[in-house]
Amino acid sequence: MTSSSPYDPPEDPAPAGDRPSARLDFDRPPTHPGTPAPARPGVRRMRRRRRRAVLLLAVLLAAGAGAFEATRLAGPDWPVHLSTRHPLSAADPSLANGAGAGTRTEPRGYPTAGPGSFAAADGRSPVRGHDGPLRRYRIEVERDAGQDADEFAATVDAVLGDPRSWIASGELRVQRVPEAAAADFTIYLATPATSERMCAEGGLSTERYTSCRLPGRVVINLARWMEAVPDYGAPLEVYRTYVVNHEVGHELGELHQACPGPGEPAPVMQQQTYGLDGCVANAWPYVDGVRYSGEPTDGV
User: Fold this and answer.
1) Which of 172, 219, 259, 289 is most buried per CB count within 10 Å?
2) Pfam families, from UniProt (predicted)?
């Protein structure tokens, strides 16, 4: 392998055998036979330039080699093959657990997509309520969602069995059951991607953000269950209670309602996920033993 230098003298066009005389015969003073010919000043300068060029080239090559070695020694000591599982941006949920994303999760710690299969809670709750028809419900939690089905069921049981919930009408009783055949409706806790697909089956668009209700199905979005909504102004437990009562209210035939006025409690059938419209957060359909509601609005 050859190397180039900053200066490469042009090759002599004369034949190889004639090169020495061709280089020295111009303006050379006469000499006697056997006497070496003195080099002309121009030739001596050319030789000095060549020596300087060769020396400069050697210095540059040595400096380059030293710099390369210093860079190599100062380089990182981690492996070259970096992990492709970089932290995901919460601002772009499509990067988390989308198609082919495996088990990636958002920084907040819950998956945004799952397998679409569910695990049912075991056991049954006592019958809650004093009178009226009995509505049985079942609890299912999406697998690999990081949530325990029995724990979620216990939270839902406590909400629907509270005297401020729908049983306060005195015309309804509720009970959780494990058998699908015995249930009047099922309450699902599903990842955003799965909940979106489930809601879309009924023609509802949730954009992976909201929960929904279809006939016989109450679908709670895991993202809302884990972090509520911005500027809700109340603890997460209040939002969780609200979303259970709101979606189950739809299953019981309730429609959306409006905020009665600034500073007033928000009706549980108000779409509090989209904002309170001046009201304050409220998770219960009954306040101080009285059914609390607002003006009906369009939609369900």
Assistant:
1) 219
2) DUF3152 (PF11350)
Residue found under tokens 């429609």: 255
By residue range, what is the domain housing residue 117? 106-254
Percent share of the chain, pLDDT over 90: 63
Residue 25: how many other CB atoms lie within 10 Å: 10
Q: How many domains does the chain have?
A: 1
> Are the C-beta atoms of 93 and 87 separated by less than 8 Å?
no
In a domain, residue 121? The reply is yes
**How far does Cα 179 stand from its chain's mean position?**
36
Largest CA distance in the chain: 140
pTM, full prediction:
0.65
Name the β-bridge partners of 214. Answer: 217
pLDDT in tens, 76-123: 222 222 222 222 223 333 323 333 333 333 446 899 999 999 999 999
Name the least confident of 12-16, 22-26, 173-177: 22-26
Pairwise CA distance, residues 66 & 68, whole Å: 5
Q: What is the CATH number of the domain that holds 159?
A: 3.40.390
Q: Is 199 part of any domain?
A: yes
Residue 129 lies in a domain: yes
Q: Is residue 260 part of a domain?
A: no
